[in-house]
Amino acid sequence: MFRHTKAFSGFSVNDIARARNFYADTLGLDVEDLMEGMLQLNINGGGHIIIYEKPNHSAASFTILNFPVKNIDEAVDGLTARGIRFLQYDEPIRTDEKGICRQGWPLIAWFEDPAGNILSVLQPEES
Length: 127
Prior knowledge:
The chain contains 2 helices and 8 strands, in the order βαββββαβββ. It is an alpha/beta fold and 127 residues long.
């Protein structure tokens, strides 16, 4: 039934204006205003993600969006320079002083958007 559909994902935030600023200006993504209280992230390759404002928003306790990068150290340094603070974990996974988990694959670092949703940058294994 859905084999050929172009599915998309969505998630909520508590402040759509702050979300627009964060995703467009801080992360540098192509953000489109759909209607009041709703944004669309236009992802490289033609994908779309909907962000909608929800008054009783509750932040996801899991990673909702992953950004693959070629060099995680450069990405973390660049995002840190833009004011992003990376999450620190100790157990069962451990992150280093930059917030990067270097145990196994992939190398990954987590951070939050202004609504508290968890995002990541990750460095896929080279082929």
